[in-house]
Specification:
By secondary structure, the protein is of the alpha/beta class. It contains 8 helices and 18 strands.
Length: 430
């Protein structure tokens, strides 16, 4: 029977990004006698101090003798996952962040972490902004028109009450209304997209709540800018494939806040499974202005049905974080893959997971430069939190509510996917 080795990660950035990686061995390429589905190796955090990015090169294999079976070949694939990357400010392409991107060296934002991305095989992030040089783009209506109308009506009512009070010599019982509507539209110049591949970012998701900040035109401009920069991008219905030494990985994307998101991901997963050896599901969750949907910070891990789940990786290169919420991490998964010389089939022999705790920024203000945590106490604080060994770093009932609702969603998606495969005879499950 075929093995299934699966992990499920949720990266939270403005909302949530989820990621599922599944190794499926095809009948046509594998001939082992395994009778039960095997689950991936437990999370190994022992390499935190000694982590070295690994390249996916094939190991040297001694030629087999005439009477010997051909030797198998082994190689590794190292993947790094991070949270939100925001290379733009609110509302305009001429923000301070965008200006910084154009005035500083191309390595500025990534200089403390880029070695991890340049020396792995695949780096994946969530891109939270539009890339476009079109200054005539119209902002998407996020309810600001209705909010402004409501505010103007409240102001008019208040002014009438003030005038009446002045005439009658009484006091005004009403409080002066405040305009509380808050929404964001993130955009930078198209050329800013080149910073991603120059610093080792290979794939970005553009399936999030800011994808259409500037409508369809802005979204199409973003796709074009990423294409020109040489960055693979994915969204609902657009699977990204990467092949290393014949081993093919599919990256499936989606957005949790959209209706029917889990079904859309299941459809893409079925296609990905038919065309790859390993699948990764990476989805964004959380809608703007909805309480409990935007933690922006780390959330703990758990193992559910043998699947490793990280409920939030938090912001990575991003504004809006203040101490103590300025911690994030690089989530590394390194696969050791064995290819049978006789059949050509692949086996994932081992799955190593390493957490690399980081600061979103260092210093008293946000310089948009994440950095690996060197202080052992701070490092252990993040690790313990991620493993559920201490209370939330960021004490908020909203964060807790988000984590529980997100967990339910992820478990539902995972269960449905596994059941779907079982019912269709794709994977024999015990």
């Amino acid at each position: 029977m075929r093995k299934i080795i699966i992990f499920f990660i949720i990266l939270t950035i403005i909302g949530t990004v989820s990621l599922v990686a599944i190794n499926l061995r095809k009948d046509s390429s594998h001939t082992d006698d395994t009778s039960e589905a095997e689950i991936s190796q437990p999370i190994d955090l022992s390499g935190l101090d000694s982590y070295q990015p690994v390249s996916g090169s094939v190991a040297t294999v001694t030629n087999a003798g005439a009477d010997e079976k051909p030797a198998s070949q082994s190689f590794t694939i190292s993947m790094n996952f991070v949270g939100d990357i925001m290379l733009a400010g609110n509302d305009t392409a001429t923000s301070s962040i965008d200006a910084m991107a154009n005035s500083q060296p191309s390595t500025y934002f990534f200089e403390n972490v880029r070695d991890y991305f340049l020396n792995d095989d695949i780096t994946i992030a969530n891109c939270e902004n539009v890339f476009s040089d079109n200054d005539n783009l119209a902002k998407t209506d996020k309810g600001e028109a209705a909010a402004l109308e409501q505010y103007n009506n409240a102001v008019a009512e208040y002014n009438s009450a003030v005038a009446l009070a002045q005439q009658s010599g009484t006091t005004v019982s009403m409080e002066k209304p405040e305009y509380t509507f808050r929404a964001f539209w993130f955009r930078s110049h198209a050329a800013t997209a080149k910073l991603l591949p120059e610093n080792g970012v290979d794939i970005v998701s553009i399936d999030n709540n800011h994808t259409y900040d500037f409508g369809t035109d802005g979204n199409m401009d973003t796709r074009a800018a990423l294409d020109v920069a040489g960055v693979d991008w994915g969204k609902d219905g657009k699977i990204v494939y990467k092949e290393i030494n014949g081993f093919k990985i599919a990256f499936v994307f989606g957005s949790m806040y959209s209706a029917g998101a889990e079904q859309a991901m299941l459809v893409d997963l079925e296609e990905a499974n038919a065309n790859s050896d390993y699948q990764v599901v990476y989805f964004h969750g959380g809608e703007e202005k909805v309480h409990g949907s935007h933690p922006h910070v780390l959330q703990p891990m758990e193992t559910y049905n043998g699947v490793n789940i990280v409920y939030s990786l938090g912001n990575f290169i991003f504004g809006g974080n203040n101490y103590p919420e300025n911690r994030t991490l690089i989530y590394n998964q390194t696969l050791t893959i064995t290819q049978d010389a006789a059949t050509g089939g692949f086996t994932v022999a081992n799955t190593d997971i390493t957490l690399i705790p980081c600061y979103v920024y260092t210093g008293e203000s946000n310089n948009y430069q994440p950095a690996v945590i060197e202080n052992e106490t701070d490092k252990q604080l993040v690790i313990d939190f991620m493993q559920g060994k201490r209370e939330l770093l960021f004490s908020s009932i909203l964060f807790s509510f988000f984590a529980h609702s997100l967990a339910a969603f992820c478990r539902l998606c995972l269960t449905e996917f596994l059941n779907l495969r079982k019912h269709r005879g794709v994977i024999p499950l015990k």
